[in-house]
Amino acid sequence: MGNPIVPDRGLPNATSLECGPSAGSTSMSPRPLRVAFIHPDLGIGGAERLVVDAALGLQARGHSVDIYTSHHDPNHCFEETKDGSLRVHHVIPPFPRSLKGKLHIFFAHARQLHLTAHLLRPSAPEYDIYFVDQLSTCIPFLRTLGKTRVVFYCHFPDKLLAHGAFVEGAVVRRQTSLLKRVYRYPMDWLEETTTRQADVILANSKFTASVSKAYFKSIRQTLRVVYPGINISAYEATVDDSHPDNVAVTSDNPTLISLNRFEQKKDAALAIRAFAILKPKLTSPALSKLRLVLAGGYDPRLEDNKLTLDSLIDLAKSYSLTYNVITPSSTKAPVEIPPLNAMTRHNPDVLFLLNFTTSQRTALLSSPSTLALLYTPANEHFGIGPVEAMVCGVPVLACDTGGPTESVLDGPGPAPEARTGWLRPPDPDVWADALHEIVALDDAERGALSGRAKARARELFGMEAMAGGIEEALVQAVGMDEVSARFGLDVSWWLMFLGVLVAAYFVAAPLALPFFRWVV
Length: 520
Description:
InterPro entries: ALG2 (IPR027054), Glyco_trans_1 (IPR001296), Glyco_trans_4-like_N (IPR028098). The protein is of the alpha/beta class. The protein folds into two domains: 270 residues, Rossmann fold, CATH 3.40.50.2000; 227 residues, Rossmann fold, CATH 3.40.50. The protein is built from 17 helices and 18 strands. The strands form three sheets. The protein has a nine-stranded parallel beta sheet, sandwiched between helices. α1 packs across α16, α2 crosses α17 and α9 packs parallel to α10. The protein starts with 5 loop residues before the first strand and ends in a 12-residue tail after the last helix.
């Protein structure tokens, strides 16, 4: 077991595409490596699940792993990050996440540069390699000043997320002000410039790799695909059916589930609309009490999370669906549920589960009452939800774009006997028809599909396969020649240092905010 969480306060005020190795590869590194993970916010989400499982997988292969982050809340995190399984260093930055809801990416860069300075201080531990994901700001400093190789894991380019939705191979841009475009230009340039400094770049799917190469034209190296993997044994663990948290979410009534953070872009509204359209079509008495469970990470600090939950509740009410909102009772500091009217405590049509526990997730996925998992995001970069469902043999309904097209098998490509799920355009009527087909599966059809899904998940998306792919990249980077200086007299790196000072100015001088009031 590792050490418990370490709130690190060492600084003043610091509180063409390639795939990884074949699944099942167990080749070991020539020597154990000292690996430092750098992740901005160690909360609850797909990126965080990948970081946790990758760190656990590398530890199981004999490597020493530390995780550094600018934010870690023991009441809003995965259990492995607080139970001693992993060494987590929470380096508390002097910068906020935003300034009155503005300048998020600006302060994200400042916070990571603060974290980088902590790692580069003379008394900091030495590492053989850094594993960085989400934010690439730190890469040139770790390489040039730290003289250490860096592997970067790309989830999806932020420049595409910031400018609008990525739909069918193109960015559907939001209407933004001139000031917002001026603000984003250096941020987008910084992302591309620092990403290409990495010694090895990995991507979470062929979809992400192809998009990154298309929009980051200055990146010359080939992005290697290492699919996110999951700890399959965690999904096979015995669940305590008598635990109050599990009793609160499981039911003998047939159930559809959706596992996603409460964010607008995850489009959980699609699940509610399809569910509402489906219910009147069901004639079987056994399906008359069909229910929908929407479970996911919820952070009351984030306006998007709060607005999304409110809008989903309003949508359920507009369809005359009963609902309830719950959080795990075992959480030391549970999320406060806002006062809501007309909640149905017993057998609601829609159950909103905020910040589910690992046990609750496993209980829902392994319940014989669970008929399908609805994965609603379109153009998702990878999407771990479908893989979690397949591990448990649960049929998947997902959008027919992005990462799920690589994890879920559906017609007309594979033969019907190879299917592990349904891929459909994000149209509520189309989804309702697909759900009608899924809930009508007989025992033999459901059993055969379950077996195929489990086999595919174990072969391609197990933690061992992911850890092997990441280990291979780490070993490759460590084996390169001595780190060459790319700093030179390039003024761009000094501008990044200046950014820290500017961020500090904004913290100390909020009167500057009116100038940026249109930056969102």
